[in-house]
Write a structure and sequence with these properties.
2 domains, Rossmann fold, globular, about 300 residues, Histone, subunit A, alpha/beta, 6 strands, 6-stranded parallel β-sheet, about 10% strand
Length: about 300
């Protein structure tokens, strides 16, 4: 697809990206490409704040329910899949809008990530078993030893670092430096932001609603179907706290508060990433207003940007 200009709607979790994307459907014949590293997992609708079935009927979404919670999915794979989705959407005469808060997915799509070296599947499966038995601290220590440039990021990123280093013979950072693919799209960013107290209130309300709507029961069902507590899909904010309750490491009453605390920390990291990593035309708007009003503003700005590019 290289070079096609695509609107990319980003912002911290709970800022209201889904509502704005749905409202944009009243202005454009659009389909959403989800750039969310948690919504790819099947069976975790509540815990990943996935668009509802009704919302997905209103605006088609791509990138949801791709794999089971025990599987892994890389940013490079997302870029390849998103390339195909964006091409298919364009072929139907519709507008692709990328929506999400996973910075690494956005980076893969726009800047390109490394081309993964071939990894022996049998050795990979055996290594996954060994990694799955490691505690988080031990995984981080191994990742740091195998790649001095490992900067943290949880079990999934540590596992990826260990896997690539042991199976390819070179650190992940080497491949990122020497085997980089080109970007797929030309971005036109829309950054949604709200004052910190507003975002914190939204996060607290959403955490309570998740538990009330059955988050804990949802995660229990995933565990009952064979996913281990340390599975990649169960390591995210919101899911992890439910797993801690179900494995006896916290009380049920503390789950919503713990989710809100972790989500605030995650949102702060997202805001920092988007503030420093986006390269390209950027529209930053206050998302405290109704989504319909924001959609009108975005649609006008998009048309203006197209007029300028044609002149």
């Amino acid at each position: 697809m290289g070079g096609v200009r695509v609107p990319i709607l980003v912002g911290p979790t709970a800022v209201g990206k889904t509502a704005v994307a749905l409202a944009l459907g009243d202005h454009w014949p659009l389909e959403v490409v989800s750039a969310d590293s948690r919504q790819i997992y099947r069976g975790l609708d509540i815990g990943t704040a996935k668009p509802t079935r009704r919302e997905q009927r209103r605006v088609a979404h791509h990138g949801l329910d791709l794999i089971d919670p025990g599987e892994r999915y890389s940013a490079g794979r997302f870029a390849q899949d998103a390339d195909r989705w964006i091409g298919d959407i364009a072929a139907r005469g519709r507008t692709a809008v990328v929506v999400g808060g996973t910075g690494l997915y956005i980076k893969a799509l726009v800047d390109g990530l490394f081309l993964e070296p071939p990894l022996d599947p049998d050795r990979r499966r055996a290594l996954e078993v060994w990694i799955g038995d490691l505690g988080t601290n031990a995984m981080v220590r191994w990742a740091s030893r195998l790649d001095p440039r490992f900067s943290g990021g949880g079990r999934q990123r540590a596992a990826r670092t260990i896997e690539v280093a042991l199976l390819s013979g070179r650190p992940l950072s080497y491949w990122q430096d020497h085997a980089r693919a080109s970007g797929i799209v030309e971005p036109w960013y829309v950054v949604l932001t709200v004052p910190r107290p507003v975002l914190h209130r939204r996060i607290a309300v959403r955490a309570e609603e998740m538990v009330r709507r059955g988050l804990i029961e949802e995660v229990a069902a995933v565990l009952a179907h064979g996913a281990g507590p340390g599975s990649p899909g169960l390591d995210g904010v919101g899911i992890r706290e439910a797993v801690e309750y179900l494995t006896g490491r916290r009380t049920r009453e503390s789950v919503a508060v713990a989710i809100a605390t972790s989500t605030r920390q995650y949102a702060k990291r997202q805001e920092t990433w988007f503030r420093h990593q986006l390269r390209g035309p950027t529209l930053t708007i206050d998302a405290s207003r109704p989504p319909e009003e924001l959609a009108r503003e975005i649609a006008r700005a998009w048309e203006h940007a197209h007029e300028r590019s044609r002149s």
